[in-house]
Design brief:
InterPro entries: Class_I_gatase-like, GATASE, Imidazole-glycPsynth_HisH. Helices cover about 25% and strands about 30% of the residues. It has 6 helices and 13 strands. The radius of gyration is 16 Å and the shape is globular. It starts with a strand and ends with a helix. The protein is an alpha/beta fold and about 210 residues long.
Amino acid sequence: MAERTALIDYGAGNLHSVENALRTVGASVDVTADPDTVRTADRIVLPGVGSFRACAQGLRAIPGLVEAMEERVEVGGAPFLGVCVGMQLLADRGLEHGTTPGLGWIAGEVRAIEQTDPAIKVPHMGWNDVALTAHAGPVLKEGEAYFLHSFHFAAENPAQIAAMTDHGGGLVAAVARDNVLGVQFHPEKSQAYGLALLARFLEWRP
């Protein structure tokens, strides 16, 4: 039976472009907010666009959804991919519009990008390099991806930083541990680079 990828629909993402990109590389996708569907998925993708607070509240507003994700990913070991704010939600907390608890899967917090140089624009928007660390794993590759964000993931554990990018200083481009991967950039907007990443995610057996 074909593997099923659960794409979490919690009202906070460019859901259809992520779905289309996954289908383009051969995924069988269930766009879902149903905890039972999440519990039986082979892989889980969490998208997200907008503020950390709105996304976190949207996710927690669906009864049993966070618990089902934790059960399938943290206990069951299903490969997980968080995209943009979906990656940021892995943090302990976000500091946008006050302090909001995250999922706490990757230690750290999501803070505003500091504009240290007037020539460096915030939000960080457009194509930029993805530079791998020693902890990148098999899904990530060096290349250029499309970014759009005003807040960044300040990860506490260097061993969970999988890739960096430079925008007036280093910003975390990806976090990873075990079966969990989060990317700050948008694979679905990153053309061939992004599609190749999603294809590798579908093949990933952590």
